[in-house]
Every structure is written in structure tokens, then in C-alpha cells.
Amino acid sequence: MNILVVRTDKLGDFITALPTLYVLKQHNPQDTITVCVAPLNKELAEACDFIDEVIVDEGNSIFVLVKKLKNASIDASITLFSNTRVALAQFLAGIPKRIAPATKIAQLFYTDRITQRRSQVRMAEFEYNLELGQVLFPDINLAFQKPLLQFDDEVIEQSYRTFCDKYAITRPVVAFHPGFGGSSDANWTLDEYIELVKVAEKNSGIQVVMTFGPGEEELRREAVEKAAGMDVIFYQSQGGITAFAALLASFKLFVSTSTGTYHLAALVGTPTMTFFADSLFASVKRWKAVSREAIQHPFMIPQDKVERQKKYDEVKKTLKQLIDN
Hints:
Elements: E1 2-6, H1 11-15, H2 18-27, E2 32-37, H3 42-47, E3 53-56, H4 62-71, E4 76-79, H5 84-92, E5 97-101, E6 112-114, H6 125-136, H7 153-167, E7 173-177, H8 190-201, E8 207-212, H9 217-226, E9 232-236, H10 241-248, E10 253-257, H11 260-267, E11 272-277, H12 284-287, E12 296-301, H13 305-324
Parallel strand pairs: 1-2, 1-4, 2-3, 4-5, 5-6, 7-8, 7-10, 8-9, 10-11, 11-12
């Protein structure tokens, strides 16, 4: 059986789809698990050994996507996040069984429409995705390995050794990622991140690194200026998303808002300290990571200035405890 899973949005959203892909492959290893993704997630999808085939939706003519789906000879599809484009493409490709949440006009093009009401946030995003897998196989085991993305020890060691040699690092790394995007709509200011960096820098047993993704060159320049004289390494990620994931796997702690890099760190089993907006839509309840809960340290950022400061003080105290342990 060739099963297609569709999730064509951003990095963090795609990572919430990976548990579903994993359990589908475990349910029957003889099945072919095919995924349809946006271009930015192609490399990560190819790095997962529980994904057999990758179809990339370039966002061009819908008939190009239809042709790709037809050529893949799909028996059943599970669309984890639907829109009219991917729904119509699957219909035109003649996929016999098409499962998706019952949302908007796109639901008309599916054979199995499942009412989930994700806006109520009864569970995390990845748990809603797993629920759709049960529609195809009611007896499927929803347990998945953690970390979900596992590299050979040799790959991780080589990645970390190269990184440490380049920056003369001899201590465990605590990383801060001040940028944000995707559904994240709350974060500390860069000045507040610098104050957190100062807390970490006081521990002589760790090396502080600030990481920056594509398009964050200006943010990096600002951080370099504000952290002048501090023992901080400023790292602009290079070599693609998989190389960055392998590097994150060696870090002691990854501190960021709820964005794609947070989900990537959790995917490889790195402890995380993560900041969420004080709203149900952007909360940790919805965007809980796919890692073990024991290594997740979530904080909601209040909108009220007084409460925000109290939460910031709590974050600093917890950060110190995590680093010192």
C-alpha cells in the first residue's frame, strides 16, 4: 500500500507531522510512506528513515502537482493541514481514499472528512495529526520513538567536532535563538535575550552561542553590537537544515521562542527552554514539542507589563538552574 501524507506548510508544522509518518511506517513496514511537502522541508523529509518517498509541491501550476501525485500511484492519503489547492490536486489525481480534517470548502474534495475543531486545542498539533492516522488504521499504535530524528553517533560527533574546532569551543554549549517566525507571535526583545545570555555567561563551565537562521543577518549584527565584550559565539546556520539538526543534537540546552528551530531541537532530543504567547492558539498546549516532556521547559509570556516582568525573572532563575545542573 502506498500512503501519502500531506503537510505543505512551514518547518515547525511539518515536524508536527513526523510522528504520524513514523507510526504509519511502524504499523506496516511493507507500506510505502510518501510525503508531500513544501520545498523548504524536502531535505528534512529525506533525512527521516521512516519516509520512503518525497513529493515537493513547488507552488506552481496545480496540474504539475496532479501529475506528480498520479505518477506516485497513491492508494490512500492523509492531509494533515488542508487547503483548496492540495485538496483539488488529490481529487484530480484520482487517489481512491482521501482523509482530511473537515475544514472550509476544501473538505468537499475528500472521501473521509474528520471533524477535529483544532481551534479548541483539545490536544497538541502533533496529536491531532496522529488522530488522523487512526482513521486509516483504527488499531494503529500511536507511540513513537524519542528522539524522533536519530543520526548515527559518528555523524553527530563529526558535526560537533567541526563546530567546536572552528570556534575553539571546549565546554558544553547553551544556545540562544532570538529570532522568530511561523505561528509564534510572542518573544522577548533582543535586549532581554542579551540579559539571559549574561545569566548563562556567568557559568564558566558552559559556552554561550547565539544562533541565527537565513534572513536574520541584521538581527545578528545587532546582537554582536549589544553583546560586545561578552564571551559569546554568533553562529549563522550553514549547510542546510539537516546539518543544523545534527549540530543541535549535541547542545546542552536550546533557548528560543516557539518557532521552527525549537521544533527542530526537540526533534533531535535536545533540552529546550521555549517561550509561547499567552493565548490558546499559540500556547504550549497546541505547540507542545515531540520530545520527552521532561526535557521541555515552556514559558508563556504575559501581555501585562508587570506580569511579563515577573515571568522574565522566573525565566532567568530557571535558566540558571538548568545550566548549573
